[in-house]
Amino acid sequence: MLSAVTAHAQVVPPAATATVTPLANGAEAHLGETLITVVALTDDILRVRVGRAGHLDEDASWAVSPAVRAQRVAVTATSDGFSTSALIVHLAADGRLTVTNRAGKIITADAEPLKLDGRSFTLKKAMPLAEHYFGMGDKTGTLDRRGYSYVDWNTDAFGFLSSSDPIYKSIPFFLGVGGDGGSYGIFLDNTWRTWFDFGHREENTLAIGGPDGPIDYYIITGPTTAEVVRRYTDLTGKAPLAPQWSLGYQQSRYSYMTADEVRQVANRLRADKIPTDVLWLDIDYQDRNRPFTVNTQSFPNLPGLISDLGGKGFKVFTITDLHVAHLPGQNYAPYDSGAAIDAFVHRRDGQTYVAPVWPGPSVFPDFTSAKVRDWWGGLFKGEVNMGVAGAWNDMNEPAVFDTPTKTMPLDTVHYIASDDFATRNASHAELHNVYGMENARATYDGLRRLRPDERAQVMTRASYAGGQRYSVTWTGDNSATWDHLRLSVQQIINLGLSGFSYSAADVSGFAGGPSADLLTRWFEIGAFYPIFRDHSAKGTPRVEPWVDGPVHEAIRRHFIEERYKLLPYLYGLAELNSRTGDPILRPVFYDYPQALTMSCDQSMTFTLGKSLLVAPPPRPESPQSYDVCLPAGGWFDYWTGKRAGTPQAATEGPIQSATQATGGARALGDTVSETPRLDTLPVFVRAGTILPRQAVVQSTADTPQGPLQLDIYPGPDCMGSLYFDDGHSMGFTRGQFFRQQIRCVTTPTGLKVTWNAPQGRYKPWWHDITVTVHGWTGAGKVTRSGRSLASHTDAAAETIAFELATAPGATTLEILK
Question: Which domains are delineated in the chain?
Answer without folding.
Answer: 19-236 (2.60.40.1760), 244-322+371-398+430-563 (3.20.20.80), 587-629+672-817 (2.60.40.1180)
